[in-house]
Amino acid sequence: MKLGVWSSIAGFGLGAAAIGGAWLWSAGRSGESLPAVERAIAARYEAAAPVEPGADVFRATVCAEAPCLLVEVSGLSFLFGAGKDAAAGLRAMGRLRPDLDAVFLSDINPASFEGLAAIRRATWLEGRHGPLPVYGPPGVSRVVDGVNLMMAGADRVTAVELSSTSLSMDGALLQAPRPAQAPRNGRLTLFDSGVVSVQVIAVHGAAGDVEWLYRVEADGRVLLIAGCGAAADDLSRAAEGALAAAAIVPGVSPTLLKVHRDAAARTSRVYQAAALDVVSAACPSFEAQANALGDARISAALVHPAFPLSSVAEARAGWKQDRARNAILPVDLGEVGAGIEFTAAGASLFEAGQPAREADSIRNSAKN
After folding, report:
1. Residues 6+ apart with CB under 8 A from 52
2. Residue 364, beta-bridge partner list
3. What is this structure's pTM?
4. Do residues 201 and 215 make contact, with C-beta atoms less than 8 angstroms apart?
5. 47: Cβ–Cβ under 8 A, 6 or more apart, which residues?
6. Which DSSP state fits 171?
7. Tens digit of pLDDT for each residue in 123-179?
């Protein structure tokens, strides 16, 4: 097998290899049998197998620290943001599906589509048969064309290596569809299945660029997904007519930003310090976002840490302090694995640490 396919499965295969290596070491000492490692590797593959969302599910889960939000609604799956490690995050959740219905970008910022090529390739190798639609502000077609061109050579190599399978070359492509409808009440309809609709409102980013605020609706329940540029008035306008509204927005920690900026300045990292000033001006703080969400009368919300990331222990402590100071409404940190789910009682938050697979199991048990 050539390098093309090996590179596609390396992240997954290395984990299985680590299990095998650990077994070989222990087997040499204790004489364990081969079935033990077979079960361990099989369990890893089973954990990564895609889980079909139920027809009654309306759930949004943060799938990576970079922009990555998986929305499962009425049997459909949408990805909002395709940042770094998005594909790996979906696979770890058991949500990397070949029939992902679309990708939506809030802005044309490299951080928002850094993982798009990996999503394209991963869903293709899972069995996608047709192009993956990618929606976004003006300029998204150039992003799509660029990723397709960049990956063309690797696609041809993979097609030869896997010629004995039913792999479809069409499934390797991204596609930027043209919106089907003109704006209505300031909204543009991008997707409408008759049960689920995805609309967008254009807002102005802090840098003067265009950002898209998304409204996902099913049976009167509305989920808003915004970038840094969405203000309280934008959120209120997007939530109009909703029976229940929830939102996921990015935010920054001014306290932690100052710590980073001071450290950069002390070490004469002028450009890094200037870049942090730009971040501070471009994206609202947790407190500002909480206030905006309260003014928009959003019933449940997550603020996704845009900077600094919350995976570092020190940063997480700072973010937790920001959260504790702003307990205005059900607003929590949008860490990886956290999310929002709509039920008959309305919108509620769930914390990181409860796998979606476990949530599905709980729901199915309740039905039975």
Report:
1. 75, 97
2. none
3. 0.82
4. yes
5. 94, 357
6. G
7. 999 999 999 999 999 899 999 999 999 999 999 999 888 887 778 889 999 999 977
